[in-house]
Every structure is written in C-alpha cells, then in structure tokens.
Amino acid sequence: MPASRSAAGAVDESAARRPTLTEVAALAGVSLKTASRALNSEPNVAEDTGRRVRDAADQLGYRLNGIARELRRGATSALVALISGDLTNPFYSAVASGIERELRQHGLQLVTANNDEDPELERALIDTFLERRVRALLIVPSGDRHGYLAIEGSRGVPFVFLDRPPDGIDADVVVIDNAGGARAGAEHLLRGGHRRIALIADLARTVPQRGRIAGFQAAMRAAGNRQWEPYLRTDVHDVRRAEETVRELLALDPPPTALFTTNNRLTTGALRVLKDRPEPPALIGFDDFDLAEVIGTTVVAHDAVAMGREAARLAHERISGHSGPARSIVISTSVIARGSGERPPA
C-alpha cells in the first residue's frame, strides 16, 4: 500500500507498512487461527467464513508470505538465485534468460541481484539469499576468493559459477573460451594486414578480461608483431570511458588502423566515436549484441543464453542429488565477419 502524506508533508507510517493477518482477522470478525486456515485453504472452514476472510484480505491488500509458509511446513524453497553484473547489459540479461527457461522446466523460479562488481556487496547478497534458503546459487563473481562458501556447499546448497571460475572452492563452472575467442579475433585483423592494432579492455583484474588480453597477446606474439603495444588500454569499464579512450587513441601519431574491444559496452563506445569518421579503423568487438548485424559490426560471438541454460542444468542436477566432482563447461566462440573488421589498413 502506498504511503500517504498529511498537509504538513509527513509520511503516514500506518499507510506505508504492510497489513497483518491480525488486521485481516479483525476486519472479517474471526479469530486469528480461523483467518490463517481460510487463507491457507485448509479444510473445515465454512464457505461464507472463507469468503469473508478473503474479501478482508483483498480490501487490506494482505498477501500470504508463501516462502515463509512453506519453510515452516518443512518444505524447500523453489527459488534459485543469480548474482551477476548489471542486468541492463545484454550479456547478463541473456544469461538470465537461459537460466530462467531451464529452471522453469523443473518447477523452479529465478531471483536475481546485481553485485555492481563489488566483492563486499556480492558477499552480502550471498548471505541474504542463503538466509532465504534458496535451492541453489548461481554467481557471476566479482570477488577473487570464495573459500567461505565451502561450509554452505557442505550443507547442501549447490553453487554454480558463470563466466568467471571461483577461487578457494570446488564448484561447477560455465565459462566462455575467452582466450581462444580473442586470439581468433586478433588473427582475423592480422590476416587483414593490420599491425597497429589497439586493444581496449575492461577491468584487467577479472578472469574473463585476463583471458581475452592473453589470447590477443598470444596472436601478436605468434605473428611477431609488436606494433600494437603502444595502443594497449585496460580498465576501461563503461561506454563513456570507451569513447574517451578511442578518441585518445585515434589522436595519436600514428593512430591504430584497427581496434579490438573486449566486451559489448566498449564496442558501443567505439561505435559512437567511429560513426562520424569518413575512413574509420577496422573494429572487432568481443560479444555479439542487438543490431550488430544491421550496422555491420564484426564480433567474436558466443551463446550467452546457452551459458545460462548450462549453468541452470548443472544446478538442477545438484539439487536432484548429483554428488560427483566439480564440472567445467566451456562455451565456444566464433568470429562473425560483418564488415567493420574487414576494413583494410589506411
């Protein structure tokens, strides 16, 4: 129920709080026990009494706490939690979509939270979800150490890590072939004749970004190319910073003839800068995204929905009793040539 304000502007706290079962019972003119039995559809409640209680609950806006009720009865929760990065990022929303679709087939429901790449927030969210007795916990980790989760795992709460493997705990994990994908993208640019290739990477402390940087560097070493080294930029974490970085790189003398961006946000920032240039450098971005095909952006693609689906499958198998050793699934990548990565060096 929404909070109301008096003429003086103060919030009416009675309007802001949630109604109680005691208030429902009082409005319906029945005992607390009878109100509880009626709302829980228990037997031996007169039809007229049950209707009166439900009408009172509707009038007050009262809703049963289904999770608490089932836990009190000794049942287990049907909730599986996902802690990830910002769900407005198409990658994380696609992962969540894959998880939700797989869980739904098994009568399980997904709840999500954003860790904001903050290890302390991540640990607080994990504690909160465990307090609510979720059946399993899926984590795209921001922190580096997860040994403290071992005791929870031993109590029957399965953990599955996505995109980034855990440290300090054996757990199922689903990751992308980050190094292989980045190497393939870099080799694609090298075959196009590029040598002054800028690498624009996100947070270098994260495992996926380290893998992508390493894969790119491996391609450069194998080709005997060191001309890319002045154009390395890391810890570029958002679209705005990517725009600034690309402008800075293109102002150099000589500028890079190609750009490799290591996630979809950085690719978006690069595209904003390149759209007004008559002869833009070549561009390849890691992660596919909406409209990339329409605007002709070459990408290193992978199936984020499949990543979520595989993680949910592993979690469900653990919930169902699988007790084998930790498993690791690697999602493959492929370079999709659409034009931007095929521009020749200026």
TrEMBL record:
Transmembrane segments: none annotated. InterPro entries: HTH_LacI, LacI/GalR-like_sensor, Lambda_DNA-bd_dom_sf, Peripla_BP_I. It comes from the Bacteria. Signal peptide: none annotated. SMART domains: HTH_LACI (SM00354). Keywords: DNA-binding, Transcription, Transcription regulation. CDD domains: HTH_LacI, PBP1_LacI_sugar_binding-like. PROSITE patterns: HTH_LACI_1 (PS00356), HTH_LACI_2 (PS50932). Residues 19-73 form the HTH lacI-type domain. One of its GO terms (molecular function) is transcription cis-regulatory region binding. This is LacI family transcriptional regulator. It comes from Actinoplanes nipponensis.
